Amino acid sequence: MTNYPLDGIRVVNFGTGVVIPDFGKILGEFGADVIKIESGENLDFMRTIGSDINNSPGFNESNRNKRSFGVDLNTDKGKELVRDLIKTADIVGENFRGGVVKNLGFGYERVRELKPDIIYISSQGFGAGGPYSDFKAYGPMLAAASGVLSLWAHPDDEYPAGASFPHPDHIASKQAVFAVLAALDYRRRTGKGQFIDMSQIEAAASLIGEAYLDYSINQHVQQPQGNRSPYAAPHGCYRCKGTDQWCAISVFTSKQWISFCNALEKPEWIEDPKFADTVSRLKHIDELEKHIEEWTQQHEPEVVMQTLQAVGVPAGIAQRAVDTIADPQLKWSNATVEVDHPVAGKRLYPNLPWKMSDMEFCESTPPPLLGEHTEEICREILNLSDDEIEQLKQEKIMEIPLLEEGEE
C-alpha cells in the first residue's frame, strides 16, 4: 500500500493543449490514476507540434503520469466504453471549446447521471456562459485579453511585447488542481460531487490584481514599466560583461542601498541628494541606471550576483535553460527529473517543486504513446475479454500505438 496523496483516485481526462492535460499531470504526480481520452482522428493539437505525434516536447511535458485510452468517440460503442470508464472515476476534466463535450454526450448533466458524486471540472478560455463562452481561446491571446500583456513590456515599446509563452494556461492548470482538491475534501465530508466552471482568463487576470485595485481606488491605469518598480530603486536587469549577459538587482531598503553603494565602492552616492532615498532615486532613475551599468559591464554576471548577495542585496543572474539545468542549488534539490520515453528517449523534465516529510509522491512516468494503455484499461477496468478487445480493434473503435519502423 502506497502513501501517495491521491492513491485510489481516478481521473478521466478529456483535456487538450495545456490546461487540463497539465492539471492531470499534477494529479498523476500525487498518485491518481489519470486516463487521457484521445484518438488519432481528433488529436490533442499539442501532439502535432513535434517530429511526430509521440515526440512533441510540449505534449510530453504536460502529459506525464497518465495513461492513454485511444477510442473513437464518433461511434456509439466508443462512447459506451467511455461511459463505463466514467462510472469508475472520481474526477472528469475537460477544456474543449464550449459545447464540444456536451455534443459528444459527456457534459456535466449526462456524466452526473452516470456517477452522481462525480467532480467535474470544465475550463474554457472565458468560462461557461456569457457572450464569449463559445470562443476558441489560446494562452497568449488570453494574456492579452486579461490585461496581463499590456504590462509585460517596456515603456518605450511600440506595442505590448509580452511573451509567446502561454503563461495563463500554466497558471490555470494549477488553479484547477486547487479547485479539485477542495471539491474532493467537500465530497469526503458531504458525499456530494461538484461542477467546477473555471475561466482561464480570470486565472490570468489574478496575476495583476494590484493593477485592478489601483484603478478601482485611484482611477489610475498602470502602464508598462519594464523591469522597474514603483517601490524600489534600483530595480532592474543590468547588462554585464560578455555577450548578452545580465544580472537582476533590487534595492528596497536604506540598509540595502548603503550596502549596495559600498559594494560598488561608490560611498559618495549615499550622500548625494539625488539618490538619498527611494523617491529621489526613482526621480533620477535613468541617471542612476547608467552609473550602475558602467560598473556591471566590467564584471561577469556571477561576480555581480555574488558581490551583492554577500552584502545582503538581492541579485540574481538572468539564467537561460542551460544555466538553470546546471545551477548547483537546483541540482541539489532535484528540480529536474530524467524520464525515458520509447520515442523521445531520455529527457529532463521539471520535478515536483516541494518535498513533504511523511508523504510519498510517484516517480514521474513517461508521457503515453497514443493509445498505449487502451488494452490494459479495457482488461483492468472495463473487464473486457480478449475476444471483445479484438473485436473492438477490428471495428476500429479503439486504438493502440502504431510505432514507426525501428521503434520498440
How would you portray this structure in words?
- The chain has 408 residues and is α/β, with parallel strands linked by helices.
- The chain has 2 domains: 10-206 and 332-399, 3-Layer(aba) Sandwich (Rossmann fold); 235-320, formyl-coa transferase, domain 3 (2-Layer Sandwich).
- The protein is built from 19 helices and 12 strands.
- The chain has helices at 19-29, 57-62, 76-86, 100-104, 108-114, 139-145, 148-151, 167-190, 200-205, 209-218, 254-263, 268-271, 278-283, 285-296, 301-309, 321-326, 328-332, 374-380, 386-394; strands at residues 10-13, 33-38, 67-71, 91-94, 119-124, 194-199, 235-239, 246-250, 315-317, 336-341, 345-350, 398-399.
- Strands 6-5-4-1-2-3-12 form a 7-stranded mixed β-sheet, sandwiched between helices.
- Helix 1 (19-29) links the parallel strand 1 (10-13) and strand 2 (33-38).
- Helix 1 crosses helix 8.
- The longest helix has 24 residues, at 167-190.
Largest sheet: 7 strands, mixed
- Sheet-strand content, in percent, reads 5-15%
Structural class: alpha/beta
* Physical arrangement of strands within the biggest beta sheet: 6-5-4-1-2-3-12
Low-pLDDT parts are 403-408
CATH topology of the largest domain: Rossmann fold
* Terminus-to-terminus distance: 32 Å
CATH class of the largest domain: Alpha Beta
What is the averaged pLDDT score? 92
Strand segment count: 12
Rounded to the nearest angstrom, the radius of gyration is: 26 Å
Fraction in helix: 25-40%
The general outline is elongated
What number of structural domains do the residues give? Answer: 2
CATH architecture of the largest domain: 3-Layer(aba) Sandwich
Number of helices: 19
The CATH superfamily of the largest domain is Crotonobetainyl-coa:carnitine coa-transferase, domain 1
